[in-house]
Amino acid sequence: MVILKTPEEIEQMKAAGRIVATCHKEIANMIKPGITTQEINDYVDRRIQELGGIPYTKGFNGYQYATCASVNDVIAHGFPSKKPLKNGDIVTIDIVAKCNGWVGDSGWCYAVGAVSDEAQKLMDVTRECLYIGIERAVVGNRIGDVMHAVQTHAQKHGFSVVRELAAHGVGREMHEEPTYIHIGTPGKGFRLKAGMVLTIEPMINAGTYRMTIDDDGWTARTADGKLSAQYEHTIAITEQGPIVLTEQAGV
Q: Phi and psi of 140, rounded to 5°?
């Protein structure tokens, strides 16, 4: 069942979103060759709590970390590692925080030092896909309208869209109904209603959209070993248009 949020509840959800956004803005100043994703994870774990939140993913279904750290060919759910990041890597850090009973969820892809032209283009197009999706997330549109626009933009630039991992509703818990993938057909799928709170989180690959899961049961990788990037915001659907609850500007 899709749980619609009242305007007052959406306002309350902004606190968790601000915590996640603050962490991402601070991570942007930390990312450099030589840092480890374990160091980033430990910082985020502490920082969420300093800001009045709870690291939601720590202990979720047995997961041990406050972040997911997905480097290069890892699409999502990568474990933080003590292996130093190197010049030219790209890394998506996914953070979920709970505050005052509400969840905020946002992932962001970072360049480590100087990256290749291909990696930069992949990151740029993936971020564009995120905001194209947000722009179309308006009352009355169907999810197929939103995701068709995302898919079309990625494929226009020669990239593919992951199909085996889904976006989701957000509220008191990280994963609420509905769930949906980032491809679609215009006019198909559920209709967006005021009060929905959702993630837009395109996972875009440089090669095939197909993926594999490591033996750890979590880490999703591109099947061909090529790069993957992801950007994610939590948004609220309102009569006045989408509100980005994890917006980094202004925090």
A: 100, -30
